[in-house]
Amino acid sequence: MRKAIIGGTGVYGIGEDIFTRIVETEYGNVEVDIVKIHGEEIVFLARHGKSHSNPPHLINYRANIKALERLGVKNIFSTVAVGSCNDKYAPGDIVVIDDFLDFTKVRPITFHEGGEHRVKHTDMSDPYCRNLRKEFCNIAGRLGIDIQGDSVYICTEGPRFETAAEIKMYKKLGGDVVGMTNVPEVVLAKELGMCYAAVGIITNWCTGMKSEAIALHDIQGALGKNKERITKAFLEIFKGELNQENCMCNKAIIEL
What we know:
Elements: E1 3-7, E2 18-25, E3 28-37, E4 40-46, H1 61-70, E5 75-84, E6 94-103, E7 120-122, H2 130-143, E8 147-156, H3 164-172, E9 177-179, H4 182-191, E10 195-205, H5 216-239, E11 253-255
Parallel strand pairs: 1-4, 1-5, 5-10, 6-8, 8-9
Antiparallel strand pairs: 2-3, 3-4, 5-9, 6-10, 7-11
């Protein structure tokens, strides 16, 4: 198994012949679904748990990514529900994440904690695999998926939403969309030499962007509109051959 999809809110039920597996890691056990599609087994991991019970700041990110490594995964597509702080991107739009700004506070953010091991740093010049991003953009055009553009992802701690003053700051720093889950997920994947790409589904305007308040039904509606089409695109890409010759994802670790 070399390919996986990580979903957050609502990207479940992606195929037939599904079986569940518990993967043991040194960071905890992780439940994944393994789905047979086009004769190949694809790993699906529900970021918040199948019952959506793990809030963003308590997700066991290290266990999740380590479990995928244990299953032999090298290529990961993920979906992230995001709010927009860019007037060009409205609820219902789809964006491709190409960089991030990290405002998390208390999460374990690395596998490399020193001690008896050498000090290791991770090159983040291309945090989201350029090859997977290119593949998604290509297939999206063929499937009629309208991508509004690339975006810089602001990751906040959650589970609260951001204040209007915070959103104003994030906009000035160059952020386009705001979420609570993509860091350290993207960083941990890079540390383990995996190709990782994230597609953002804009579910709402960030606080202070518009007069209306954030509403749960709007978030669910935006996700429901796009999740099946995006998942179909991921699976179309996974039908083809993927390798790490066209990126530097498996060469990001710098040892001192």
